[in-house]
Amino acid sequence: IVLTGGDDHLWKTWGFPDGNILLTGEGHTDWLSGCCFRPSGTQLVTSSGDTTVRIWDLSRRGCVLTLRGHSRGVRGCSWHSCGDFVASASMDGTSKIWDVNSERCRYTLRGHEDSVNSIEFLPFSSTVVTSSADKTLSLWDVRTVSRL
């Protein structure tokens, strides 16, 4: 299964090798920039130009949580390997760590001077890496909300 998102505001799962569309999700009101599966495979997260991050439940075929807090479009998202946290990177110059269980922002990472374009958790750690239009990469310890 492959997961995609695009300018049509939709995410889609595709079966391979046939290339059949298995599921389609709608609800964002602007382009999708990122999408990835929860490590358990039961949910996915999407990020969008509409400033939101959304959690989707595949068995329910719908959005179960909309995370709001960025002031500009969200350029990327990723799940922590434990499946309890989602990270987002925004054109507002910040990144956020979201606690999926409490449905709130746990930390806001500030320090880039321009749009944050991508974010990834390092596997099995509390470290994230961000890339920015300010031409820098940063490593962050999300427990202390500080750059490494």
Automatic annotation (TrEMBL):
Lineage: superkingdom: Eukaryota
Keywords: Repeat, WD repeat
Keyword DNA-binding in record: no
KW Heme (keyword) present: no
One Pfam match: WD40
CC per GO annotation: axonemal central apparatus
Ranges for the WD repeats: 25-66, 67-108, 109-148
Biological processes, Gene Ontology terms: axoneme assembly
Entry coiled-coil feature ranges: none
Database matches in PANTHER family: SPERM-ASSOCIATED ANTIGEN 16 PROTEIN, WD40 REPEAT PF20
Protein name: SPG16 protein
